[in-house]
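User: Batch of two.

Assistant: Item 1 of 2:
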Amino acid sequence: MTSDPVLSIRAASKTFGSRRALDAVSLDVGRGEMIALIGPSGSGKSTLLRSIDGLQTVDEGEGVITAFGGPVQAKGRVSDQVRKARIRIGFIAQQFNLVGRLTLFTNVALGSLGRIGTMRGLFGAWPAETKAATMAALHRVGVADYAAQRANTLSGGQQQRGAIARALVQKAKIILADEPVASLDPVSARKVMEILRDLNKTDGLTVVVTLHQVDYALRYCDRVVALKAGRKVYDGPTSGLGRDKLIDIYGPEFEDVFWEGAPQ
C-alpha cells in the first residue's frame, strides 16, 4: 500500500436503531489496489461502501472519511466539498441503477454530467468527446452492439457492464462496487469480475468490491477486508484466508458450503 492512501476511513461507526452496523472501522486504501470486502449478511459491507461515497452518513463522533486527501464526511455530516470526490468515484450497485426507458448509450453518456452540465445531458446534446468516450467504454466492456437498445431490454449482465462503462465515461479513478455480481448468473458474474480486474491491472483504477462469493474474492482480488457484526476482523492478503479464518468470519456453517479446492 502507498503511504498516501486515496481513501481513508477513521473510526467510522453507524447505528440503525439498536443495531451497530459499523463499529469504529478504520481502513486505508492505496492507489491501484483491488480490495474485496467480505463478511456475513448484515456485517456492514454495504453501509461502509455507501459511507465512503457520502451516500450514508456515519454517526456523530470521531468518524472521518476522506478521498483523494479531501473530506467526504466527518462527525456525522457530509462535507460541502463531497462533490469533488464523487466526480472521481464510480459507484456500481447490485441493481445496476440504469434508467430502463433510456438507451444503453444514453445511460453510459450520463457519466459525463459532472463535466458537461445537467442541461446538455437532459436534451441529449452530447459533445463529440462524450460520444466517443461512450462508445469506447461500451466497446471496452463488450456491449457496444447494444448501444441503441433500451436498458430494460438487456440482461442483468449486460446492464451491469453498462454501469461499469458509465463509470469509465465519468473518468472515475476509484470504483466502489456493491455486490455487483449478486444477481447475475455465474458466466455473467465472472465476466463482470474479469472486467473490474482488467480495469484495475491495465488502467490502474482502484477497486473496492463487496462480495458474498468468497471464491471470487480469492480469485480476483489481492487484498481482502472482512467485516463481522460491524467490526473489521481481517485485513490482509488473500493468501491469509485459510479454512479456519473463513470459518471464524462466517461461523461453523461455512464448513458445509466450503467449495472444493479452497485453501487449507
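Item 2 of 2:
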Amino acid sequence: MDFSGKHVVVTGGTGALGTAVAAGLLGMGATCTIPYTHEAEAQRFPHRGDAKVKLIAVSDLADEAAVAKVYVGVALWASIHIAGGFAPGKVADTGKAALMAQIDSNLVSCFLCCRAAVNAMIAAGSGGRIVNVAARPALEQRSGAGMTAYTIAKSGVAALTIALAEEVAKDGILVNAVAPSIMDTAANRKAMPKASFDAWPKVEEVAATILFLASPDNQVTRGAIVPVYGKA
C-alpha cells in the first residue's frame, strides 16, 4: 500500500493502537496529524519530532471547536478515529454523568470527527477514506453485560459508520469500522493478569486491517464493521 502524498488524521494516535497505525502510515509515506489530550502519551510517542507528524493538543474531541482546530487547512485523504474511552459498570450503578461520559468520548467524538472529515474531503473533491473503531460488544451486545454504557456508545459508532457510508459513497468517500475484541496491550495485561494473552489480537494486526480500509487500495469496501478478534 502506498500513502505517499496522502494526509491522514489519526485520533487516539498516541495510544497503543494509534501508535501502531501511525507507524504503518509513516512507513508507507503518509503525513499524519495526531490530536492528543494526554501530554504524557504525547511525550512518549515514538514518532514525536518526525517531519511528517503534526501533534496537536486538544482539550476534548467531543467539542466542536477543538475538532475544527484539527481539520482546518488539511488536504485530507483519510481520517482514522481511534480515540475513545472505556469504563465498566452495571446499569444499576451507572448514573447519567457516567453514561454521557461514555457517549461523549466514544460516539460524539467520532461523529464530530467524521463530520469534519467529510466536509474537508468534499471541499477537496477527491474522495477519501474514514475508518472508525467500534468494539466487539457493538456486534455482540450480550457480551456487553456489565459495560452497558460503553456498549451503547460503541453500538452508536457502528450505526454511524453504516449510515454515513451510504450517505457519502457518491462523493467517493468510503467509510468503514473495525470492531476489536480485547487487544494485547500492556494496560490490558496489567488489568487482566490471568487472561490468555495469546488469544488477544496484537495492535499491529488490528492496525493492518485499519490501514487497508484507509488506503487507496480499498476501492470497494464501505459500510463494513470488520471483526478483528484474533483467537479470542
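Residues 7-228 form a domain with the Rossmann fold fold (CATH 3.40.50.720).
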